[in-house]
Amino acid sequence: MLTFIFSTLILFGAVFAFGFWLWMLVHCIRNSRLTDGERICWALVIVLIPWVGALTYLIFGRNGRGAMGT
User: Fold this and answer.
1) Measuring CA to CA, which residue among 45, 46, 38 is closest to residue 20?
2) Residue 32 DSSP code
3) pTM value?
4) 19, 53 contact by CB (below 8 A)
5) Nearest-angstrom CA–CA distance, 32 and 52
6) Consecutive sets of 10 residues in the chain, 70 residues long: mean pLDDT of each?
7) What are phi and psi of 35, to 5 degrees?
8) How many Å apart are CA 14 and CA 35, to the nearest integer?
9) What are the helix (H) ranges across the chain?
10) What is the pLDDT of residue 57?
11) What pLDDT is stored for residue 53 in this prediction?
């Protein structure tokens, strides 16, 4: 029984992580605040470094150039 519960939690965690990753990738591609070059760079970061890249985009990249004060 404990194995079933543990497996179910792992499965839910994996589905959540994949959903978050996919959400950040789609948001990056559709974000009108980013230039074309920034979109490509962020998309590459999210794809090549999946979970860390998605989290980094969530924190630093979502607001485009205004987020870093430039």
Assistant:
1) 46
2) T
3) 0.80
4) no
5) 22
6) 92 96 96 92 95 93 60
7) -75, 170
8) 31
9) 2-30, 36-48, 50-56
10) 95
11) 95
